[in-house]
UniProtKB/TrEMBL annotation:
It is an enzyme of class 2 (transferase). Its EC number is 2.7.7.65. The lineage of its organism: Bacteria, Pseudomonadati, Pseudomonadota, Betaproteobacteria, Burkholderiales. It comes from Massilia orientalis. This is Diguanylate cyclase. Keywords: Nucleotidyltransferase, Transferase.
């Protein structure tokens, strides 16, 4: 602290300034430091006597060209209007090389800096206030991390906008339990785009992604009941969960979906089995004796899907069909 006056009132004010829980620097019109409060001393590792009467920009050369310098020059110009300039931490994270007390090479304190011009008679000054906002920055980071992890764990597939595999797993488990409890029906469709490797090879991965989205939307549009679930099962494979739907009803649904996508006449690669984008679909239904658990139901639908592929693609095979 630099005593500027020995009278009691000034002494009293200076002592109070030394107790303030933020950095206070006062500069004269020549950018010379005339006040450096106690908060600054341990965090800058500079005693008041060492900086007295020195230019702020000599003490901290890195401030040259910074937002802080611009704010100081504006505050000390004869036309300064007395208004404060705040430099939020988001714009300039840590303009002053200040560290936690006792940490000589630790990370800098995150700072919010305010520069305020004032006059004493004809003399122009400016006060720089530096607040430690590290705690708020840390809290904000934690909130962002949390939001990010919620997003990552959410139930929507980022590419196609329909439910993701995570949601599918939860929904199938829930619907299977419900079917068991209610002695109801439940069908599962596993849906695979035919010759999709050839599609990617011919049109490129980006157009492949667009094709996946189109098929996903077409699938979602064909499922009308609120409890039906269309999901991306993985890669170029989709799934549909159809509660209260028998095997034969599911066969009809699957054929309608297959027809609809083939009818879109999306051009396929020359090396593909069909000239347009087509689907192979395997269907299986909950069955109290045989298919009453998730893995068994999925395996049955998958076997039917494989049979549809073997049978020439662009077709539906239902669990129990001779070819499945
Ligand atoms: N563009 C794109 N391609 C994907 C994505 N996920 C999986 N694929 C591609 O889908 C293709 C699937 O190929 P395969 O499993 O060999 O099957 P296929 O070519 O569709 O042949 P069949 O299923 O036998 O008709 C692979 O080339 C994967 O790279 C994705 O998110 N985007």
């Amino acid at each position: 602290m630099i005593p500027t006056d020995s009278d009691t009132a000034t002494d009293f004010s200076l002592r109070a300034l030394n107790l303030v829980n933020s950095g206070i620097i006062v500069l004269d019109a020549h950018h010379k430091i005339v006040l450096w409060n106690g908060w600054m001393v341990p965090r800058s590792a500079r005693a008041a006597a060492r900086v007295r009467e020195r230019s702020l920009f000599e003490v901290f050369p890195e401030l040259r060209g910074s937002r802080v310098e611009a704010a100081v020059l504006a505050a000390l110009s004869p036309s300064a209007d007395g208004a404060s300039t705040t430099i939020p931490q988001s714009e300039s994270r840590a303009p002053f090389p200040l560290r936690e007390t006792g940490s000589f090479d630790g990370p800098r304190i995150d700072q919010a800096v305010t520069v305020t011009p004032f006059r004493d008679g004809e003399q122009r000054y400016c006060m720089i206030e530096i607040r430690d906002v590290s705690g708020a920055v840390e809290r904000e980071k934690r909130l962002l991390d949390h939001a990010e992890s919620l997003r990552a764990r959410s139930y929507v597939d980022g590419l196609t906008g329909i439910a993701n595999r995570r949601y599918f797993d939860v929904a199938l488990d829930r619907e299977l339990r419900r079917a068991q409890r209610a002695k109801g029906e439940l069908s599962l469709l596993l849906i695979d785009i035919d010759s999709f490797k050839a599609y990617n090879d011919h049109f490129g991965h980006q157009q492949g992604d667009a094709c996946l989205s189109t098929v996903a939307q077409a699938l979602a549009a064909k499922l009308k009941r609120p409890a039906d679930v269309a999901a991306r099962y993985g890669g170029e494979e989709f799934a549909a969960i159809l509660p209260d739907t028998s095997l034969e009803q599911a066969r009809l649904h699957a054929n309608a979906i297959r027809d609809h996508v083939a009818g879109l006449a999306l051009p396929h690669a020359p090396a593909a089995h069909w000239p347009m984008v087509t689907l192979s679909i395997g269907v299986a239904s909950f069955d109290r004796e045989r298919l009453h658990e998730v893995p068994a139901l999925i395996e049955a639908a998958d076997k039917a899907l494989y049979a549809a592929k073997r049978g020439g693609r662009n077709r539906v095979v239902v669990d129990g069909d001779a070819s499945a």
